[in-house]
Design brief:
Elements lengths: L8 H11 L1 E4 L5 H21 L8 E2 L12 H4 L2 H11 L4 E10 L25 E7 L10 E3 L9 H4 L2 E2 L2 E2 L4 H4 L12 E3 L6 E5 L4 E2 L11 E7 L6 H5 L7 H6 L2 H6 L9
Antiparallel strand pairs: 1-9, 2-3, 3-11, 4-9, 4-11, 5-8, 5-10, 6-7
Length: 268
């Protein structure tokens, strides 16, 4: 890691509290990203082959195994990441989930959504879950970079949140913000065009979506989910697989083990 880069953690915290996201540019060495991507592509393609062959998708989401090279202390133990998470979630935060987002060429817009549910309607709480995300390639308009609507992590109005859209509650908000390229109302999404090696922190309640990928390559991104110690969604609990090896566990620092304390160690 490039320890010469100094990040203003307090400023990043302010941006995250106000906008629902913040970006740490050039945090991850490109050699590390390339090593992760080299291992990720065959794993991802293998997971695709396991799915229904009659189901043709363009945007895939997979759980990421808690193993090397994906569990990389150079990233999740980076001093800037640790300082930020301790200030945002408290010093007892835990790494609970690990997943991916991969839009293939030809994919259309995602629907506007949150990554996590609200705890209550009509009552906004402090943040309890943060997605720490890093792309494995440069992201830009052509390959489907993310859009985020700033400050929507504070939206808790039950009149909006409890509407049923396509049979779902509390998740899809195209009826509020508009569908596809058509915006409804005066909302101003921010397009996150990120360089490879950048990392961004997102309050999971902020509304966002993937955009069309009109390039000739996939736009792979991995997301580490960090929570306050009392919050663990059922979905994340299901992802607590026995991927962790004893060798990997033994190689970690005491702090890393504390952050990963919910993981199950694979029996040898």
């Amino acid at each position: 890691m490039d320890m010469a880069i100094q990040y203003d953690i307090d400023q990043h915290l302010e941006e995250w509290k106000i906008n629902g996201f913040t970006i740490f540019e050039d945090l991850i060495p490109l050699t590390t990203i390339d090593r992760i991507r080299e291992a990720w592509i065959p794993y991802r393609d293998g997971e695709i082959k396991k799915r229904d062959p009659d189901l043709i998708e363009k945007r895939y989401n997979f759980s990421v195994p808690f193993e090397k090279p994906f569990v990389e202390p150079e990233i999740f133990e980076h001093p800037a990441v640790v300082q930020f998470l301790e200030k945002a979630l408290g010093p007892d935060y835990v790494w609970s989930g690990f997943d991916s987002n991969t839009p293939f060429p030809g994919v259309d817009y995602q629907e506007w959504h949150r990554d996590i549910p609200l705890l209550f309607s009509d009552l906004m709480t402090p943040a309890y879950s943060i997605g720490v995300k890093f792309p494995l390639v440069d992201t830009f308009e052509d390959n489907g970079s993310f859009e985020v609507i700033p400050s929507t992590q504070y939206l808790a109005d039950s009149a909006l949140c409890e509407k049923e859209i396509k049979g779902r509650k509390n998740k899809w908000f195209n009826n509020v913000f508009g569908s596809g390229a058509e915006h409804r109302g005066r909302y101003y999404p921010v397009r996150l065009n990120l360089k490879k090696g950048s990392l961004w922190m997102q309050d999971g309640r902020a509304f966002h979506r993937g955009t069309p990928n009109v390039s000739d390559h996939t736009r792979d991104e991995l997301c580490m989910s960090f929570n306050r110690p009392w919050f663990n969604s059922h979905w994340e609990e299901e992802e607590m697989k026995t991927d962790f090896t004893q060798d990997l566990w033994d190689s970690l620092s005491d702090h890393a083990r504390h952050v990963l304390r919910w993981q199950w160690i694979k029996e040898s």
